[in-house]
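Progress against Task 2.4 (sequence-to-structure conversion) is shown through the following example record, which the project officer requested during the mid-term review.
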Amino acid sequence: MKILLTNDDGVYAPGLAALEAQLCHLGEVLVVAPATEQSGVGHAITFLTPLICKRVARLDRHPAWAVEGSPADSVKLAIAELCPWKPDLVVSGINSGLNAGINVLYSGTVAAAIEGAFFGITSIAVSLEYDSDPNYQAAAVIARNLVTAITARPTAAGGLFNINIPTVATQHAPEVRVVPMGLAQYGDRYEKRQDPGGRDYYWAVWNDPEVPPAEGSDVTELRRGRVTVTPLQFDMTRQELMEPMVDWDLRA
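Structure tokens generated for the chain above:
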């Protein structure tokens, strides 16, 4: 299997290294990742400035490509120019912090996987709950097992999947749940502060939603210590409205 590995935490991130070590058991791995952390950039791409990349050496690991751009840039450039072969699989992670619920829409980790799916390649995003002392090695083993199981299914070919691993799951044999993403709105507040010069600035505050997340969603299952797997799609069309809207008599 030919595997393209990327992330949004940067080419030197420990989560990337741990996942690379495990994916090497499944096939040939090429790492193409952002040169610096790109958390929260979503599906941004670079097209107004040159996209610079370079080969970098990493201690005890194969050289990798560091891209001075976004996670989506990294995957797009890798498939178009840098890979000596078309990947059979694109994996993005391990991210430091969960990418569940509506955070999927902001996530550079998930965006990199989406970019791989654009090319018709099976693509999987992997995220681990934030912890001051994360066990990336245990999380990488969980991820490898799930990647193996997903790619073994013919119906998964060309698909897009999002894996989230809570911290507690790295401490014992975890349960796995296939769940939808939660839609509750998080983080809609800002704290107003002042810098030493008296100028106002704002700091995003993570707050729980006013309406609790739906039972059986990724958010609720992660709180119960279960690993979650969510099949995603990037087609944002509301298909159920296509036919009714023909009768809306829309005019320019």
